[in-house]
Amino acid sequence: MKLNKFLLENKKNLTDYGLSGLGSLVDDYLTEPESLLHKAEKALLENDDFFEVHRLLTKSIETQTVTLLNKLGIKEPKAFQVQISLVNQLGILAPRILVKIEGSHNSLENYGEDEKKEKLENQLDITSLYIKTTKRFMNNFFQDFEMSSHESPPNWNKINKYSWLGSAKHSFKILFHEKERPHIQAIGVVDYSEVMNYRINSSKSDYIPLLRAFIKLSLWDIDPDSVFDELCHELLEVV
Question: What phi and psi, each to the nearest 5 degrees, are found at residue 227?
Answer without folding.
Answer: -60, -45
